Amino acid sequence: MSADALAQAFAHLESGRLTEARRLARGLEQARPEPAALPYLLGLIALAEGQGKKAAQQLARACARTPGAIPPLLAFARSQTLQDRQAEAKSAYRRLLALAPDLAIGWQELAELQLRADLKLAFKPLRAATRLLPGHAGLRSNLGIAARANGDVMTADANFLAAILLDPSLAKPYANRAALLRHRHLPAEAEARRAFRISPDAASHIELGQALDPASALDHFAEAARLLPSQLEPLWLQAEALRQLDRKEQAATLYRQILDRDPEDRFGAGLALAGLVGAIPERAAKAHVEALYDQYAVSFEQNLLGELAYRGPQIIMDGLKRLGLTGPFDVYDAGCGTGLMGQAIKQLAKRLIGVDLSAKMADLARARGIYDEVRVGDLLAMERAAYDLVLAADVLIYLGDLHQVSRAASEALRPSGAFAFTVERSEEDAVVLLPSGRFAHSEDHLRQTAKAAGLQVALLEPTTTRREKDLPVPGLLCILRKQ
Ligand SMILES: C[S@@+](CC[C@H](N)C(=O)[O-])C[C@H]1O[C@@H](n2cnc3c(N)ncnc32)[C@H](O)[C@@H]1O
Questions:
Q1: Is 211 in contact with 194 (CB distance < 8 Å)?
Q2: Which residues span the domain enclosing 279?
Q3: Is the N-terminal amide bond of 101 cis, ω within 30° of 0?
Q4: Segment 406-436, tens digit of pLDDT
Q5: Is the beta carbon of 422 within 6 A of some atom in ligand 1?
Q6: CA-CA distance, 119 to 209, in Å (whole number)?
Q7: Is 171 domain-assigned?
Q8: The pTM is what?
Q9: Is 289 in the pocket of ligand 1 (CB under 6 A)?
Q10: Of 197, 271, 344, 456, whose CB count within 10 A is highest?
Q11: Statement to judge: residues 286 and 367 lie in one domain
């Protein structure tokens, strides 16, 4: 009798007739002995009703009653997700997948959790799921996203292409591939147009706009701004396109709107506005540098060491060597980024402290395991008389006037300590805001700021730390000494 009622209740549940399923389950709660599968049934009903906590309680009982059974474990993991208990959900999926490594849906759901929390961590579960479901286009497309987040553009591209071949009716794989091509400075219009034809939503307008020339892009950004009134990105893209078209006043109006709505200035509208009117702001907004490098962190080294042939740390090391500064030093690596400068100086360091505005860059520096401490924050927050060497490789390009940083470095140094840094070179004006949003500084400015800070110029010479559009970027290497 109760076996029939149980089977019927499951049948109602499967067909979405929750009231009937719940009515039968209530009757079964009175049965003695209680049917073994009752907690599982009650858990599933609660899940279907969106009651995560109640579901979790029943499903935990169900798991205890039938240890190692897969369906209650899967349902339990879902009940944790429903309650937004990410860590518990992840550990439930891991337990489940240790028992059932071929359960594609388990890998898929774990990957969805990771995609929301940390794209990079979604790669493993997605790879496992695609191995089990090789023809699933959506999974391939997500695998591409996770590969890209890990900096593996080739795997990303191969998976976007596979997704397109598997199901050409989906917009996402085209849009993802367009974004990747654009990121690699390759033509992206064809892919962006395909995504747009399939799904002409705000995201497609933005992607297509970015693949087009500024004049053709404007309407797409304007439409995206209309569709997403609470977001600043379409406004920013519109302002940038107007600036490129030399429609300065319209661009300035939009930059001002962006600044009004986001005074911390994640987009760098303050710099852009200053650039339009030829003003020199004090520095790039902290929130802007942070956002820029948080986004850039994963591809930073590949891009800088490969495409841009970056040599800042080697140039500084060479300068120190020529001055006979061989350590061992207590070192403050200002704007440490992913730790390239730290890696180079490590052999001469007794104590190595890194600081960076971007938490993602700081994480990568920490992961090198060479720093005694990596702080997230502004480089100006240096302790007094605590270091023998303050380094800033390719960092002061985000500061305008260098008086304040030179003073801070001077105060942070012990007697006979050194402040070694590279900047981009301005041939005439003391400080120039470049179209790239970075600052360049003149030799005179470096001499003046050193003097004002009580530092001696030990080395100041032209150099080039990286290339841009295949041309060397003019720079300066500067090493200042404290008496
Ligand atoms: C071009 S990277 C150079 C990184 C590293 N020094 C190197 O040589 O590889 C510039 C770094 O400086 C950081 N940065 C810029 N302004 C900063 C500030 N005011 N305080 C701390 N970090 C800053 C950025 O977040 C970024 O990681």
A1: no
A2: 189-292
A3: no
A4: 999 999 999 999 999 999 999 989 999 998 8
A5: no
A6: 25
A7: no
A8: 0.83
A9: yes
A10: 271
A11: no
Which of 295, 333, 356, 371 best tests ligand 1's pocket when mutated (most atoms within 8 Å of CB)? Answer: 356
Ligand 1 centroid from CA 240, angstroms: 24
361 touches ligand 1 (CB under 6 Å): yes
Q: Using one digit for the tens of pLDDT, what is the confidence trace for 186-232?
A: 999 999 999 999 999 999 999 999 999 999 999 999 999 999 999 99
Residues 327, 287, single domain; the answer is: no
Q: Is 180 left (phi over 0), alpha (psi -120 to 50) or beta?
A: alpha
Look at residue 1 in the predicted model and tell me its pLDDT: 54
What's the gap in Å between 336 CA and the centre of ligand 1?
6
Residue 172 lies in a domain: no
393 lines ligand 1 (CB under 6 A): yes
Q: Distance from the CA of 337 to the center of ligand 1, in angstroms? A: 5
Residue 176 within a domain: no
User: 362 and 451 in one domain?
Assistant: yes
Answer yes or no: is the C-beta of 348 below 6 A from any ligand 1 atom: no
Distance CA 92, CA 79 (A): 10
Q: Does the CA dihedral 314-320-326-329 come out positive or negative? A: negative
pLDDT at 305 over 80: no
181 in a domain, yes or no?
no
Closest Cα to atom 13, ligand 1: which residue? Answer: 335
pLDDT category of residue 356 using cuts at 50, 70 and 90: very high
Q: Are residues 227 and 326 in the same domain?
A: no
Is there an atom of ligand 1 within 6 Å of 312 CB? yes
Q: Last residue of a domain, which of 253, 269, 292?
A: 292
Residues 279 and 394 both lie in one domain? no
* Average pLDDT of the residues of the chain: 95
